Amino acid sequence: MKGYIFLLLSIFVLVSCNEKPVEKPDRLINKETMIDILYDISVLQASVSFKPDIVNQNVEVEKYIYEKYGIDSLTLHQNQRFYASDVEDFNKMYKELSEKIKNEETIADSLSKSEKKVETKETEVKRAP
Fold this sequence. Notes:
Blueprint: H1 2-18, H2 31-50, H3 52-58, H4 61-69, H5 73-84, H6 87-127
Helix pairs in contact: 2-3, 2-4, 2-6
């Protein structure tokens, strides 16, 4: 008897894991745009953490995201839930997001180094007789 209950319970768990627990939203945001939204949210949240007074005066993070992508909070929430319900696919999206952030960080670092070189050369020229 215990074997049958275990078997039925196992089948139930396997069948329920194969179905998507969250329904597709009425306004589905494509993956590329969702990655862009997540990127913008990450950058804006990092900016708020780094310089809260400046960013809070100029940009309302949520309002900016909603206006830029023509969505509302419900649409964003439904899409986040939908994409998060497929863990493997969501991990792929976050890997793409991480790569995008790393690429932007590399570009920013190289620009920063270039600016420092220019500033150093300008300082040397000013000191020269």
